[in-house]
Design brief:
Layout lengths: L12 E2 L16 E7 L9 E7 L21 E9 L2 E12 L7 E8 L17 E4 L2 E5 L5 E3 L9
Parallel strand pairs: 1-2
Antiparallel strand pairs: 2-3, 3-4, 4-5, 5-6, 7-8, 8-9
Amino acid sequence: MLFERTEMPPRRIYTDGRDWPQTEETWFVGYSIGKWLDTDSDGRYDTLEVETRNLRGPRVWDQSGMPMGDDNNTVIKERISLDKSDPGTLRVEMTTTDSSLTRPWTVIKTFKRQATVWWTEDNCPEGQAHVTIGKEVYFSSGDGTIMPMKKASQPRT
């Protein structure tokens, strides 16, 4: 599975029945184990169920910079399937369990197939937006300010 951004490595979803690796190692995209399901018993696999763990921190929820939990114990479960009434629509239900949340958070993303796709090159990635100074992690913003990832830290310029 490839990401839209070229500086990210491909995501591997292992569907060979393996167990979780016995390691404390983390990866930027995590470690994903999936299994195919035949949800309507028609003899054809129609849903990919995936669980991802061991995501490397520090991580943020989105471009706002809101941090995820520090413990690297985030678990993301996904159900990926084509819409049965519209095969041009892919639905992904994602449930995230993270120590920064009071309960698991679920969202459903919908993707439409495009008949014509224009591929562009992205040869100039800006680089990592996270900066570590001592034991503190900061987020480098567009205006040159280094913003703290935690409330207790002070902004730096």
